[in-house]
C-alpha cells in the first residue's frame, strides 16, 4: 500500500553549464504577429555587420566623473574614414641653402648707366720709353704764392770731428791749495812679548823679547817713550792662568785703562787711543803679587804693542835724545808709593842702548 507523499526536499546544487549546441539554420520569416508585451531582456546577440557611418550628432554635455570613478581603457577601435581636407597650415621654416646652381645664360644688354663720380688719384705708373724731341722752351710761369711752413725734419747724424784747434794762451795761476798730509818721515811702532810669568808689582811689566821697534822708542824694560806730540794706539793681549789678573796701561799722571780677569786659563786684552806729548812714557802694571796671573808660555804668549797714528804737526822727527829716568815712586797701581826705578833709555841712530 502506498503511503502519503512526503515533504518536498531541498533544491540540489546547480549543475554545470552544458556545452553550446551548434547554431541552427535561419528559418523563414513568419507572419508578423500582434505586438506582444515587452519581454525580458535577452542575452547579448552576436555583433552585426558594420553599417554606413551616420551623421554627426549634436555635441553632448560635458560629463562629470565622480570622485570614485576610475576609467578603464577599452579596446582600440578600427580606423575611421579619412576626414575632409583641413585649412592651409602656416609656412614652414626655411630649409638649408641648396648647392650653387649652374651659371645661367647671359641676359640682354642693359641701357647705359649714369656716369660715376671721379675716383681717387691712382699711383704713378712706370716711366715709359720716350722717343720725343724737345720742343721750344715755354715762357716762364707766374710766381706762385708762398706755402705754409713745413714740419721740422728729423735730427741728422752727427758730423765728423773737426781738426784740433790751436793751443790757447796760458791761464792765470790758481789759488794755493790746502796743506797735504804729513809725509812718511815721522814713524814709530813697537811690539814685544813676555819672557817670564807672574811679573812683580809696582814696576813696569818687562816685555823683554822685542819683535819690532821702529825708531827704537820702546825700552825692553817695558817702557815706551813718545818721540813727538801726537795720537797713539796701545794694546795688550796676555794669557791668564793659575791666579787672577788685574792689569792696566799707565802713564803720567795715572792709568789709561784697567782690566780684571779670573784665574781660569784664558785671554785678557785691551786697546786704547790716547794723545801723548813728546817724552811722555807709557807702560803696563799688575796690581799685586797675588793678582799677577800673566803667563809666558811657548804656545800662550803675552804681548804689548803700540804705534804713532799721526803727529800733531808735520815737523821732522827730532834727533835721538836721552830721556831722563822717571822719578822715584812713579810706578804704582794706586796711592801706595813705590821705590822702584828703571834704567834710562838712550836713543841713537842704532836703536836703544
What can you tell me about this protein's structure?
- It is a single chain.
- The protein is mostly beta strands and 353 residues long.
- 0% of the residues lie in helices and 22% in strands.
- It contains no helices and twelve strands.
- The strands form two sheets. Strands 1, 2, 3, 4, 5, 6, 7, 8, 9 and 10 form a ten-stranded antiparallel beta sheet that branches. Strands 11-12 form a two-stranded antiparallel ribbon.
- The termini are far apart.
SSE topology:
Layout: E1 189-193, E2 209-214, E3 218-219, E4 223-225, E5 230-251, E6 255-261, E7 266-276, E8 281-286, E9 292-295, E10 303-311, E11 347-348, E12 351-352
Antiparallel strand pairs: 1-2, 1-10, 3-4, 4-8, 5-6, 5-7, 5-8, 5-9, 5-10, 11-12
Amino acid at each position: 500500500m502506498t503511503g502519503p507523499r512526503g515533504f518536498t526536499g531541498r533544491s540540489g546544487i546547480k549543475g554545470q553549464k552544458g556545452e553550446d549546441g551548434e547554431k541552427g539554420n535561419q528559418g523563414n520569416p513568419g507572419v508578423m504577429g500582434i505586438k506582444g508585451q515587452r519581454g525580458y531582456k535577452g542575452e547579448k546577440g552576436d555583433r552585426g555587420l558594420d553599417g554606413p557611418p551616420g551623421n554627426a550628432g549634436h555635441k553632448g554635455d560635458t560629463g562629470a566623473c565622480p570622485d570614485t570613478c576610475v576609467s578603464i581603457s577599452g579596446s582600440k577601435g578600427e580606423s575611421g574614414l579619412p576626414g575632409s581636407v583641413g585649412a592651409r597650415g602656416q609656412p614652414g621654416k626655411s630649409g638649408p641653402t641648396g648647392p650653387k646652381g649652374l651659371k645661367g645664360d647671359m641676359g640682354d644688354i642693359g641701357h647705359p648707366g649714369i656716369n660715376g663720380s671721379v675716383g681717387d688719384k691712382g699711383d704713378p705708373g712706370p716711366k715709359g720709353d720716350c722717343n720725343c724731341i724737345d720742343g721750344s722752351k715755354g715762357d716762364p710761369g707766374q710766381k706762385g704764392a708762398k706755402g705754409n711752413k713745413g714740419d721740422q725734419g728729423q735730427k741728422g747724424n752727427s758730423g765728423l770731428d773737426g781738426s784740433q784747434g790751436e793751443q790757447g794762451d796760458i791761464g792765470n795761476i790758481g789759488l794755493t791749495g790746502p796743506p797735504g798730509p804729513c809725509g812718511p818721515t815721522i814713524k814709530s811702532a813697537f811690539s814685544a812679548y813676555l819672557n817670564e810669568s807672574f811679573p812683580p808689582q809696582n814696576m813696569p811689566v818687562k816685555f823683554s823679547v822685542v819683535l819690532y821697534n821702529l825708531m827704537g822708542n820702546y825700552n825692553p824694560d817695558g817702557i815706551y817713550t813718545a818721540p813727538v806730540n801726537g795720537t797713539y794706539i796701545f794694546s795688550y793681549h796676555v794669557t791668564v792662568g793659575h791666579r787672577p789678573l788685574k792689569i792696566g796701561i799707565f802713564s803720567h799722571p795715572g792709568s789709561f785703562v784697567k782690566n780684571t780677569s779670573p784665574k781660569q786659563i784664558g785671554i785678557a786684552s785691551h786697546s786704547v787711543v790716547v794723545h801723548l806729548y813728546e817724552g811722555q812714557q807709557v807702560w803696563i802694571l799688575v796690581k799685586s803679587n797675588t793678582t799677577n796671573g800673566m803667563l809666558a808660555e811657548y804656545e800662550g804668549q803675552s804681548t804689548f804693542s803700540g804705534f804713532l797714528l799721526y803727529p800733531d804737526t808735520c815737523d821732522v822727527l827730532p834727533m835721538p835724545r836721552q830721556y831722563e829716568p822717571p822719578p822715584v815712586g812713579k810706578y804704582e797701581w794706586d796711592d801706595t808709593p813705590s821705590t822702584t826705578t828703571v834704567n834710562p833709555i838712550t836713543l841713537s841712530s842704532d836703536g836703544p842702548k
